[in-house]
Amino acid sequence: MIQKLRRKFIAASMLALTLVLLVILGGINTMSYYRTVSDADAILTILAQNNGRFPRPNDGTNSAPEGTPPDRNGGRERQMSPETPYESRFFSVTLDDSGTVTGSDTGSIAAIDADSARSGAEQVWESGKMTGFWGDYRYIRCQTDSSWRIIFLDTGRSLNSFRSTLLVSAAVAADGLLAVFLLLLLFSRRIVRPMAESYEKQKRFITDAGHEIKTPLTIIGADTDLLELDLGENEWLDDIKRQTKRLTGLTQDLIYLARMDEEQPQLQPIEFPLSDVAEELAQSFHNLAAAQSRQFTADIQPMLSFTGDEKAVRQLMSILLDNAVKYTPENGTITFTLKKDGRSIRLSVANDTAATMEKESLNRLFDRFYRTDQSRNSSTGGYGLGLSIARSIVSAHKGKIQAENSGGNDLTITVTLPE
Q1: Above 90 in pLDDT, residue 63?
Q2: Distance CA 357, CA 403 (A)
Q3: For the chain, percent of residues with pLDDT exceeding 70
Q4: What are the beta bridge partners of residue 299?
Q5: What is the pLDDT of residues 166-221, one digit of tens each?
Q6: CB 279 within 8 A of CB 318
């Protein structure tokens, strides 16, 4: 249990740190990408306003051609650096209304010739988009008086810088996560040590107290039998014997739970005929259910075998069937099913209940000493440890157990055991 708690602590810490890094680094890289696109769009807008060229310092800018998207700065013209025309590599292509290329201007770029410019413009035209990326080129499509112009701006260096930043941040995040993981492995043992010591003391107390209580309980039982021989049967002696038996059962259950909660519970796995064990228990509980006016049906697949602790698995089935008989109302139904499901064995016990079980109750059914107000009260006997023991047995066999209902007055407990 302590190891599980330690693993959960490490997993929760790593998940929290991963989310924080994703938010921080994701925000930084998103802003970097947005800035790259925004700068490119600002330059393209200037080029679109000046027929695919940069304005001379003393020239005024023309009004934006029809179809030019607004600048990302809320429509306000962005201040252009005097060095921008010398740092930018761009080309433009003109097309008629049918999308036929009528001309191109590649004088401001060396990496693109007329044929490449024509191919890029045709692909952009077919996409129907006004802005976007063609490879490492950001483009804008705008309409002039009698034609269309598509302007491409080389953003390769900016995009490469963005990609490098993204890769570096991802590598730094991965290294940071690895470092934190190693530190958590180193220090988590110290963090959970107080809880581990407290838990060990609790288990030791339960085990020691259980063994110490067994002796007086045995003596009380023996003395009660002697008194019964002398005085004969009476209600007070019967009550002493009944309560002694309940207390003995509680003590045994607590000791069993403490033993099953060990990191490596001592099981004795052997291969045994699981179907035969289920048939035997089904017959016993069928008679018990009939005596209490319950309808019991069993659907057991024959010839199933299982490798595990036979005594523990037998106890698991007994707990589930006993619970079903106890908490099924008169004339209610109980269904016991055992089948092979792929590479697993599925065991389920379904029964009617006196009232609808809430989702919160279903989630807590396997807690120790938990009893629902609707169906679990002192009149049924027991202390709410049965399903806790069942969960421990299933966990020791690397299986899963869950409780569910269909929304009505019913309960189904399903156990999945790996072969």
Answers
A1: no
A2: 10
A3: 83
A4: 337
A5: 999 999 999 999 999 999 888 877 777 777 667 666 666 666 676 677 778 778 88
A6: no
**What's the CA gap between 306 and 349, in Å, rounded?**
18
Both tokens assigned to 236:
């007070």
- Token pair belonging to 71: 């600048």
Q: Is the dihedral of CA 111, 116, 118, 124 positive or negative?
A: negative
Residue 186 C-alpha from the chain's centroid: 25
Distance in angstroms (rounded) separating the CA atoms of residues 232 and 149: 113
Residue 77 banded pLDDT, cuts 50, 70, 90: very low
**Residue 371 Cα distances to 64, 240, 375, angstroms:** 76, 25, 8
C-alpha separations of 309 from 265, 298, 305, 357, 359 in Å: 11, 23, 12, 32, 32
3-state secondary structure of 390: helix
Tokens of 232: 């004969």
Q: Return the structure tokens found at 366.
A: 């396997």
Dihedral-angle region of residue 384 (phi above 0 means left; psi in -120 to 50 means alpha; beta otherwise): left
Measure the CA–CA gap between 175 and 179, rounded to whole angstroms.
6
Contact 159, 36 (CB under 8 A): yes
Per the CB < 8 A criterion, the answer to whether 390 and 319 are in contact is yes
**Which residues have C-beta within 8 Å of that of residue 377, sequence separation ≥ 6?**
371
Q: Where are the extended beta strands (E) located within 237-294?
A: 269-273
b or e along 113-130 (b: 16 or more beta carbons within 10 Å of the residue's beta carbon)? eeeebeebbbebbeeeee
Do residues 272 and 306 touch, judged by C-beta distance below 8 A?
A: yes
> Can you point out the beta strands (E) in 106-166?
131-134, 137-143, 148-154
**What does the DSSP assignment read for 26-71?**
HHHHHHHHHHHHHHHHHHHHHHHHTTTSPPPTTSPPPPPPBTPPPP
Q: How far apart are CA 226 and CA 235, in angstroms?
A: 15
